[in-house]
UniProtKB/TrEMBL annotation:
Transmembrane segments: none
Protein's organism: Piscinibacter sakaiensis
Listed SMART domains: HDc (SM00471)
InterPro entries (alphabetical): DUF3391, HD/PDEase_dom, HD_GYP_dom
Entry protein name: HDIG domain protein
Residues of the HD-GYP domain: 144-339
Biased composition (Low complexity): 64-97
Region (Disordered): 64-101
GO MF annotation: an example: phosphoric diester hydrolase activity
Length: 412
């Protein structure tokens, strides 16, 4: 029998069936567990959750009649950082920029870095690497953009064309790594190293035939073996020059490892996977599944996040939680349904409010007709997101225009 109780009525011996609230807010790795220690009980009651469902068949009931007050929302606590992250020095405050101001800068940046990204790939095909200074300069530009507005560059770079995926993927992962590093509180030096890892993690794919990488149909066994060898090929190439940080070499070699040990090439698992490598795994997969490929249509940003959350055995959960907080549960560009029965596109996020972004409503499901686009801040008022929607039936260019040029009136 399941029972809904206020968080302050929880006690040792209860079996938690479900915590009611955002997944990114609760501090436990498991979704169902028995409260067996005072530390777990204290962690639960300090989590910011206000309601918990318990299973009376597997644990004890409340000691006395449960509280009759209606639980009220509370701010989510900060993410418990991995030891390697907690020890890092927090970066100095940055000067923020507005979305549209940074969007113009980010577009110019992407135009400028495309030749460098392409040359990085071309040189690697020949068994060479571009000068380290070129890579460092690119990372510096990425960091500056992320520091001015963390959401802009990582959103725009997702719009790369399918035929540019192979080389722009490295730029996208680099931007995501810097943004994730900032979310985790890494130092400037560590964020730069994270950006470099993102830029170079897939360099071994330059040594794989393009007809295999871009094959529209299933790979043969021999082709799959070839593709799975790209981490070792990249690691060998980066090792040959001698100036690549050890953490970047490890990210290149092990970014396809999984938390459960079922990845490749070495089957490394859990805490044996370095923090920077765990970060690279999350950023690499997100960009891969949310980008158009020659053989696959992109999943929407929100669907990509939802699927990654469901793949619990793949990723370090603390790193994934930080990544979700960085992009939001509904990343910019996501198509969502509101409680007011309107469709909207997510256009911007508020730090610390992953489920309440700013959206641009454009269609009434009640009338079945379009409405004048209106900008809505979901932290205010009564409207809220009830689900993400499949953008497939909609004109993607028109959806993109809704968040790329968000100058609609503001809802009260």
């Amino acid at each position: 029998m399941l029972k809904r109780i206020a968080i302050e009525d929880a006690r040792l011996g209860m079996h938690v069936h479900r915590l009611e609230g955002d997944w990114v807010s609760h501090p436990f790795w498991r979704s169902q567990f028995t409260l067996e220690s005072a530390a777990d009980l204290e962690k639960l009651q300090a989590s910011g959750m206000r309601v918990v469902w318990i299973d009376l068949a597997k644990g004890v009931d409340v000691a006395e009649p449960a509280s009759t007050h209606t639980p009220t929302p509370a701010p989510a606590p900060a993410l418990a950082e991995p030891p390697a992250v907690a020890a890092a020095q927090a970066p100095a405050p940055r000067t923020p920029a507005g979305w549209h101001e940074e969007q113009a800068r980010a577009r110019r940046l992407l135009d400028a870095v495309r030749p460098t990204a392409q040359r990085l790939l071309d040189e690697a095909r020949l068994g060479r690497l571009v000068e380290r200074g070129e890579a460092d300069q690119l990372i510096g530009q990425v960091m500056a953009s992320v520091d001015r507005h963390p959401g802009v560059l990582v959103t725009l770079v997702r719009l790369k064309q399918a035929d540019a995926y192979t080389y722009m993927h490295s730029v996208a992962v680099s931007a995501l790594m810097v943004a994730l590093g900032r979310q985790l509180g890494l130092t400037d030096a560590s964020c730069a190293e994270a950006g470099l890892a993102g830029l170079l993690h897939d360099i071994g794919k330059a040594r794989i035939a393009p007809e295999i990488l871009n094959k529209p149909g299933p790979l043969t066994t021999e082709e799959w073996v070839e593709v799975r060898d790209h981490p070792r090929r990249g690691h060998a190439l980066l090792s040959s020059r001698g100036d690549t940080p050890a953490s970047v070499l490890d990210a290149c070699l092990h970014h396809h490892e999984r938390a459960d040990g079922q990845g490749y090439p070495d089957g490394v698992a859990g805490e044996d996977i370095a923090l920077l490598t765990r970060m690279t795994s999350v950023c690499d997969v997100y960009d891969a599944i949310s980008s158009d490929r020659p053989y696959k249509r992109a999943w929407s940003p929100a669907e990509s996040i939802a699927r990654m959350v469901a793949w619990k055995s793949h990723f370090d959960q603390d790193v994934l939680k930080a990544f979700v907080r960085c992009l939001g549960i509904y990343p910019v560009g996501s198509l969502v349904r509101l409680a007011s029965q309107r469709l909207a596109v997510v256009v911007e996020h508020h730090p610390g409010h992953p489920a309440a972004p700013i959206v641009r409503a454009f269609f009434s499901l009640g009338s079945g007709h379009g409405i004048p686009p209106v900008r809505i801040d979901l932290r205010r008022g009564r409207d809220r997101i009830v689900s993400h929607e499949d953008p497939g039936p909609w004109d993607r260019d028109r959806l993109q225009a809704l968040w790329l040029d968000d100058r609609s009136p503001v809802s009260a």
